[in-house]
Amino acid sequence: MTNTINLPRGRKLNLEKPCVMGILNVTPDSFSDGGKFLDTAHAVRQAMQLLDEGATIIDIGGESTRPGAPDVSLDDELKRVIPAIKAIRAKSDCVISVDTSKAQVMEQGILAGADIVNDVRALQEPGALSTLAKYPDVAVCLMHMQGQPRTMQNSPTYTDLLAQINHFFEQRIKACETAGIKVEQLILDPGFGFGKTLEHNFEILAKFNAFNKFELPLLAGLSRKSMIGNLLNRKTDERLAGSLAGALIAAQNGAKIIRVHDVKETADVLGVLQACEKGAL
Fold first, then answer.
1. What is the pLDDT of residues 100-148, one digit of tens each?
2. How many angstroms separate the CA atoms of 60 and 118, rounded?
3. What is this enzyme's EC (predicted)?
4. 3-class DSSP state for residue 272?
5. Among this protein's residues, is 11 annotated catalytic?
6. Cβ proximity of 123 and 176 under 8 Å
7. Is 8 exposed, middle or buried (0-12, 13-18, 19+ CB in 10 A)?
8. I want to staple 220 with a disulfide (CB 3.0 to 4.6 A). Which of 72, 78, 255, 269 is the partner?
9. What are the φ and ψ backbone dihedral angles of 83, each rounded to 5 degrees?
10. Which helix (H) or strand (E) holds 141?
11. Rounded Cα–Cα distance for residues 184 and 260 (Å)
12. Which residue among 196, 239, 256, 259 is the active-site one?
């Protein structure tokens, strides 16, 4: 199992124990916090707060990928994301992830100080593979999605859910290798809510260790998602308990990065889990 990932400037991301990725959406329309951090100064303050609360990684995104979300132009995404990355990097040496599918945003984000590219389309957009191949010390998260954000929740179907996700990972890992991207720089995300029904999402959560076969770090991102709301009949701002339960189950089944809105609470949950696993109590 790869538990250490190289990062730019000779740094490393230690994933021997699960860590928290704090979500920072510099968008007007993300499902949970859209519009709150469009201003760069607000984004920086939020990033510093997330780090204080226990985040290891700050994940910065400028395009909403919620079901039905409209496309965002390259120019708009660059204007949202790059100033935030530069400003946060000027304040901290924390691990920064840029959440994008556009090759130009990936490259500009890396040059601005990003360490990880988190791509819901798994480097399938034009130029993505060749761009990342130029930056061997940048980590890459490959996420599984059936369809595209606008249509992904229109009756998603699978004949064998886990096998098909793993087959997708096999194909994308091979594509990365062929392009010259090192396998040890990859992170895998099965994509909760991206072309999955409620039943699909909870099958993935219950059997999350099915993706350990690649011996690569796994990312779980289910914070405040509709899989929690629909199961428990909870509005977006009422999904903390369900999100924490999901984070705990994912971590117990092999997730090394937990992507969340509620950093402090998730860090507490992981702290208790790690103490129990060490037999410290």
1. 999 999 999 999 999 999 999 999 999 999 999 999 999 999 999 987 7
2. 9
3. 2.5.1.15
4. helix
5. no
6. yes
7. middle
8. 255
9. -60, -35
10. strand 139-143
11. 24
12. 259
Q: Which residue out of 121, 224, 225, 256 is catalytically annotated?
A: 225
User: Helices (H) and strands (E) in the chain — how many of each?
Assistant: 9, 10
| Token pair 């992904």: residue | 152
pLDDT mean for each 10 residues of the chain (281 residues): 90 96 82 58 94 98 78 91 96 97 98 98 97 98 84 79 97 98 98 95 98 97 96 96 98 97 98 87 54
220-243 confidence digits (pLDDT tens): 999 999 999 999 999 999 999 999
Q: Is the dihedral of CA 2, 210, 136, 9 positive or negative?
A: negative
Q: Beta-carbon neighbour count of residue 271 at 10 Å? A: 12
Structure-token pair, residue 9:
């400037």
DSSP 119: E
Separation in Å, CA 205 to CA 50, 58, 62, 208 = 25, 23, 27, 5
CA angle 62, 138, 136 (to 5 degrees): 140
Structure tokens at 163: 């096998």
Tokens standing for residue 59: 């994940």
- Is the distance from CB of 115 to CB of 139 less than 8 angstroms? yes
For 187, the 3-state DSSP assignment is: strand
3-state secondary structure of 38: coil
CA angle (67, 69, 72) in 5-degree steps: 150
Alpha-carbon distance 24 to 38, whole Å?
A: 10
Distance of CA 136 to CAs 7, 46, 72, 116, 129, Å? 9, 29, 28, 11, 12
Decide if 225 is catalytic.
Answer: yes
The structure tokens 């000027």 sit at: 90
Whether the Cβ atoms of residue 40 and residue 79 lie closer than 8 Å to each other:
no
